[in-house]
Design a protein that fits this description.
This protein is α/β, with parallel strands linked by helices. The protein folds into two domains: 72 residues, Alpha-Beta Plaits (2-Layer Sandwich); 155 residues, Vaccinia Virus protein VP39 (Rossmann fold, 3-Layer(aba) Sandwich), CATH 3.40.50.150. It has eight helices and 14 strands. The strands form three sheets. A seven-stranded mixed sheet has the order 10-9-8-11-12-14-13, with helices on both faces. It has a four-stranded antiparallel sheet with strand order 2-3-1-4, covered by helices on one side. A three-stranded mixed sheet has the order 5-6-7, covered by helices on one side. Helix 4 runs parallel beside helix 5. The radius of gyration is 19 Å and the shape is globular. The chain starts with a strand and ends with a strand.
């Protein structure tokens, strides 16, 4: 998949960089980095709407916020080289090591997951993947059926399998992600993780003990009715892919579908919500 990288210089930086990041996420941008006082925002070519982007920038200029930006087109074939050159192993509380094939193994960790990132989301570097990996360690997966929506590299489903899940079912709308996740299952000798290309409507009409959805706020809200149908009574739902300022909105929306919020976790403005199905 081709991407656009848009580098934005914003003045004043605070609070506008954080606010703009959240609003860019609403219009399809899916990852962000900050470097040398600039914000780098990334959006897939198919999700980029130039009119929406320009309208948003104009809103900020009307608020007397100074914004300059440069747009760069990044072909899909460039991502592997970029990831490999910058990719470092991820150490999660000295318990989980998420590493690429070109990193050395380390037997001192309780769990090790080998991920070839390619062009899929989910290497453990992003705050949401890190948070979910950390807090899934506290969950009893023994003999549980798990659904991983928007699986990306498959890292969370692979982790669930390694933590004892009976079965894992994963979906992703990107064919490349599905192929990558299947390859990563093979790398980790995971055989109980089935992955299909498609959205939530293609998930078998079964009940799952644990549902994991690391996507974005708008998709999570749109999927909530399906999560309710697919989650067992007293089952767990983990939501992520949004900002800490969205916690109240998503918790309230989930409540409409009989989910109670148990806990929420934050890391660098990103968040995870842990919920349970009440009926």
């Amino acid at each position: 998949m081709n991407y656009f990288q848009i580098t934005l210089n914003i003045a004043p930086i605070k609070p506008w960089t954080e606010i703009l990041t959240q609003e860019l996420a609403v219009i399809g941008f899916d990852s962000f980095t900050e470097e040398n006082k600039s914000l780098q925002a990334y959006v897939s070519e198919e999700n980029y709407n130039e009119d929406q982007f320009n309208a948003l920038i104009e809103e900020y200029r009307q608020k007397k916020v100074a914004i300059k930006f440069e747009k760069e087109h990044i072909p899909a074939q460039n991502w592997n080289a970029v990831w490999e050159s910058d990719y470092e192993p991820v150490n999660i509380d000295k318990k989980i090591l998420i590493r690429a094939p070109f990193h050395k193994a380390d037997s001192s960790f309780e769990l090790a997951i080998e991920i070839q990132p390619q062009m899929s989301f989910g290497t453990g570097h992003h705050q949401t993947t890190y948070l979910l990996s950390k807090h899934l360690l506290t969950v009893d997966f023994k003999e549980k059926k798990v659904l991983d929506v928007g699986t990306g590299t498959g890292v969370l489903g692979i982790l669930a399998s390694k933590l004892g899940a009976e079965t894992v079912f994963g979906t992703d709308i990107e064919e490349g992600a599905v192929e990558n996740a299947i390859e990563n299952c093979e790398r980790n000798a995971v055989k109980n993780f089935e992955i299909i290309k498609g959205d939530i409507d293609l998930v078998p009409n079964e009940k799952y003990d644990i549902v994991i959805a690391n996507i974005n706020k708008n998709v999570l809200k749109r999927h909530m009715e399906a999560y309710a149908k697919l989650t067992k009574k007293n089952g767990l739902l983990f939501l992520s892919g949004f900002f800490e300022t969205d916690i109240s909105e998503l918790s309230a929306h989930a409540k409409l579908y009989n989910f109670d919020t148990l806990e929420s976790y934050q890391k660098e403005t990103w968040a995870v919500i842990k919920l349970t199905k009440t009926i």
